[in-house]
What we know:
Largest sheet: 8 strands, parallel
Radius of gyration: 17 Å
Distance between the termini: 15 Å
Helix content: 40-55%
Oligomer: single chain
Strand content: 5-15%
Order of helices and strands: EEEHEHEHEHEHEHHEHHEH
CATH superfamily: Dihydropteroate synthase-like
Number of helices: 10
Structural class: alpha/beta
Number of domains: 1
Mean pLDDT: 96
Strand order of the largest sheet: 8-7-6-5-4-3-10-9
CATH architecture: Alpha-Beta Barrel
Shape: globular
CATH topology: TIM Barrel
Low-confidence stretches: none
Bound molecules: 6-hydroxymethylpterin-diphosphate
Amino acid sequence: xxQLALRxxxxxxxxxxxxxxxxxxxxxxxxxxxxxxxxxxxxxxRALIEEGADIIDVGGExxxxxxxxxxxxxxxRRVLPVIEAILELGVPVSIDxxxxxxxxxxxxxxxxxxxxxxxxxxxxxxxxxxxxQVPVVIMHMPVPDxxxxxDHARYLxxxxxxxxxxxxxxxxxxxxxxxQVVLDPGIGFGKKRHHNLLLLRHLDRIxxxxxxxxxxASRKRTIGELTGVxxxxxxxxxxxxxxxxxxxxxxxxxxxxDVRAHREALDVxxxxxxxxxVASSSKA
Length: 284
Ligand code: HH2
């Protein structure tokens, strides 16, 4: 049985779980500006939990392609009061940041998981996970900078390259004393549509590394391109399809904006696929 030890919480990954996104930013690509006030953010967190989120992922800096970095103090000002308030809600909270200074204060408040889109590019981030004994989501991006990542969307074999990156960062983290890692191919981060599709189609090759896998395709550009739905907030059905395909290939955490749609879809999906999937994977 795989489970994530999230300080006082234990989250079984025997079935896929939902990470609900809480963006405390003015400029996130699909919901920027909606949850900037603490009360609005806490109300959103409550709604995500009610709809079935297993983890709440709080971020204070957009990492969409081309996004400008947010100063440390501003990012702290956005996320820390929200984290403090939602820790009361009894659900694990993850801090989505690439800045150790922000992660340090979130962890001191009691946050349960580090979600680092740069895949532990900064050594201090590893040290924090070790000090607080919390797991880390290691995500792939080709360079640790959203401003330039799309200039690096060039791969000979995207699946092999992302897999090798994740494995090497995972080993490094575990050797340093990080208790657990979750791997994420980084859908849309320095990747074009065909790269994203290859990573989703062959996600089993990343899952076969033996670490829990997280996928975040929610409302992203590739979904819009495939469906013709231009408004990111309306890309719900395409997002669900991408995430079910990912779950079929071994993803155990889905990072999503539209929790209710994913919860219902996963409940049905897992009732059908769960037992066969577990049976066939335990033989492997
Ligand atoms: N995607 C985004 C942000 N954080 N973290 C992980 N582990 N995986 C992802 O795919 C991922 C992530 C981007 O999405 P969003 O938070 O909705 O937008 P923005 O960066 O514009 O705030």
